[in-house]
């Protein structure tokens, strides 16, 4: 890996340019352009969502980790699988809408299978239903990325007794999305599809790039069990 010459200011400019990518197809095209330096750049942003989510899963998961199959939705370059390996998980299937991010995930050698899927546009494959011990979506359930409606389909991909971990941001720009996601999760729980195991609110989620962010923005990790 070559040394990262990107600074916080240059990464900020790249991220602010992403705001003009509105549709899910446009957004994944933005990630095609970011894939090459994504891992180094998010380290500069102090992006901790994958480690926070993996720690949360590990503190509740009681199954056999080596053989449990994890569906990593919006897997990007593979940061989540890298964190989950530290907790003993070994079997990963990844999906993402960006071919360039998937190429990086492929290079990591961490995934048994990788699929190109633009959620909101492409349905989850029917063979995913009830197939996974753990489903994770980290850094992609937020405004301009994957719709909160997809949460329901993701619950259907989990085996009974398995779990799902989602993350979202709770900065002002994402509060409307977060409220819709909270409502959807409440409905899913009321319908008996899942039960909440933990919700972790984190103040220093990652460095914010907007003037009024004033340092770090906040975020949330959700962990639910499939009934
Ligand atoms: C911030 S990155 C997170 C990647 C990885 N989960 C991580 O935590 O490093 C967001 C990822 O979501 C993917 N993505 C965004 N919208 C998507 C969509 N509608 N369908 C599939 N993937 C999407 C992008 O291609 C990108 O890889």
TrEMBL record:
Transmembrane segments: none annotated. It holds the Pfam family Methyltransf_25. Residues 70-162 form the Methyltransferase domain. Gene3D superfamilies: Vaccinia Virus protein VP39. InterPro entries: Methyltransf_25 (IPR041698), SAM-dependent_MTases_sf (IPR029063). PANTHER family: METHYLTRANSFERASE (PTHR43591), METHYLTRANSFERASE-LIKE PROTEIN 27 (PTHR43591:SF101). This is Methyltransferase like 27. It comes from Kryptolebias marmoratus (Mangrove killifish).
């Amino acid at each position: 890996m070559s040394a990262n010459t990107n600074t916080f200011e240059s990464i900020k400019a790249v991220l602010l340019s992403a705001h003009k990518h509105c549709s899910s197809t446009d957004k994944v095209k933005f990630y095609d352009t970011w894939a090459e330096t994504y891992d180094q750049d998010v380290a500069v942003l102090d992006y901790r969502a994958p480690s926070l989510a993996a720690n949360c899963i590990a503190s509740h998961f009681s199954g056999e980790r080596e053989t449990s199959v994890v569906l990593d939705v919006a897997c990007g370059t593979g940061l989540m699988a890298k964190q989950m390996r530290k907790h003993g998980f070994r079997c990963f299937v990844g999906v993402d809408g960006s071919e360039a991010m998937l190429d990086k995930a492929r290079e990591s050698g961490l995934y048994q299978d990788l699929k190109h899927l633009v959620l909101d546009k492409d349905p989850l494959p029917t063979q995913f239903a009830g197939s996974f011990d753990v489903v994770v979506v980290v850094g992609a359930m937020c405004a301009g990325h994957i719709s909160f409606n997809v949460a329901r389909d993701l619950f259907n991909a989990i085996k009974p007794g398995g779990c799902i971990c989602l993350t979202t941001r709770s900065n002002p720009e994402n509060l409307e999305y977060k409220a819709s996601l909270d409502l959807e999760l409440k409905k899913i729980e009321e319908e008996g599809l899942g039960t909440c195991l933990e919700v972790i609110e984190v103040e220093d989620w990652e460095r914010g790039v907007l003037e009024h962010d004033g340092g770090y923005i906040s975020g949330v990790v959700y962990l639910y069990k499939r009934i």
